[in-house]
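Dear Dr. H.,

I hope your travels went smoothly. While you were away I took the liberty of generating a structure for the chain from your last submission, since the lab meeting agenda had it listed for discussion. I wanted you to have the full record in hand beforehand rather than looking at slides cold. The sequence, exactly as received, is reproduced here:
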Amino acid sequence: MITRRELAALVPALGFAQVKEEKKLAPYYPTPETIVERMLQLGSLKAGEKMFDLGSGDGRLVIMAAEKFKADATGVELDDDLYKQSSERIKRLGLEGKARIVHGDVLAQDYSPADLLTVYLLPSATEKLTPILEKQLKKGTRIVSHDFPFKNWQPEKIEDIPDDGEGRSHTLYLYRR
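The corresponding predicted structure, in token form, is as follows:
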């Protein structure tokens, strides 16, 4: 039987792929547009505010924040294909001045200018993210988490949304630092 070390030595590309896969904090699962809008409404996003979507996927939250809410919106996405897809869509829509996607790890970013953060990450990811946000976020920053609460934070509001037509319900958690 070949050991993990031997396999990594034999196939460096596979070793890189494994490291990158381990950095992923959640699988890509697109948020329905109705829930995207509700997350931004619950977070009371206002024109000109700085909004970050952590694990931005195809960029739908960032795009709606910039287009409909007139916010300064930034997404953070690790996946190469999703980063390219969302960046190209922003460019096609002419939103480069108001929306952007950072190609990187959500655990290695500076969120200190944020007025609103949106998050759709697994509980294990929010646990890793919590100390970073507690250190970086300014007083009054709002956080809206989709389906998964932050373990040791007390939500200001919880909103249960019944089946939106896709066969499942959603829960949104609003926090304020």
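Two observations you may find useful: The chain is about 35% helix and 20% strand. The first strand starts at residue 50 and ends at 54.

With kind regards,
E. W.
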